[in-house]
Here is the input.
Amino acid sequence: MTLPGPHPAPRLSDIAAQAQVSEATVSRVLNGRAGVAASTRQRVLAALDVLGHERPVRLRRRSAGLVGLVIPELTNPIFPAFAQIIEQSLAGHGYTPVLCTQMPGGATEDELVEQLEERGVTGIVFLSGLHADTRADTGRYARLTARGVPFVLINGHNPRIDAPFVSPDDGAAARMAVRHLAELGHERIGLAVGPARYVPSRRKAEGFVAALGESFGLSRGQAERRIQHTLFSVEGGHAAAGALLDEGCTGIVCGSDLMALGVVRAARGRGLDVPGQLSVVGYDDSQLIAFTDPPLTTVRQPVQAMATAAVGALIEEVHDRAQGRRPTQRTEFIFRPELVVRGSTGPLRE
Here is the structure.
């Protein structure tokens, strides 16, 4: 058996190409010299990481502290996408991220938070957690604040929680999806979305109802009959599609890309062509969605901007608490999504 040898020394040219800087800049960073912008220095260090080389000992800075990231699961690719950018942003600010994932039968959000507190975390980022569930007890967050732990919440604004929120404009996402289908000639449009108790589901449903009223003059009651609340999963989308297809829908807006894939599967199970006989719009636009069959038209969640804003808000909370300042007004930062048109939508065939 041959044991692997040590990694060869990184070449300046490789690091420079990866970081998109000059070899002279790489040399200054590796030798700890001044005259390099912090953002450029971080790019060079990130290039070392990507190329699989250890950072020189003198460049390994002491962590500013641990920050927990609590996410629901990893099977939906949008959550790892958020996690990656949040972790990169935290590392860029000198913090060490600690990823905590909830799984069926595993630790609950409260148990994960308890474990993070035991490790002395500086703060916590919650992504699509219990804060998004209108039936959940918000007292857990008040107690976390009382214990002096700063936190920020992504996706699912709740006015009863005194903390910074970062959200996509779910209502606008539904409206732009409906308008896209209406412009293609579709009139019977349905919505497949998650359980009604979740804030993102409610906001998408409100946007959908408003869009059907604006485009076709439907009343709230008429529009709501075209909404199917189900699970945020392939299976949930498949189940919702059955009911919406029975209603004669030729276009379906979905609350997630996974649900959209379930809708496509259900349509094909009935011998329907997508987009020839059914147009489907997803939501999220995680990395692999462009390579589905057909490539999925979807509403892109602004992950980079949202994740960066969440980390910035948390760090501001940490600094305010360290200096004994209380924020005068916390707010919800709302980011506008973007419609990405691909092959799963097309003109209505007569």
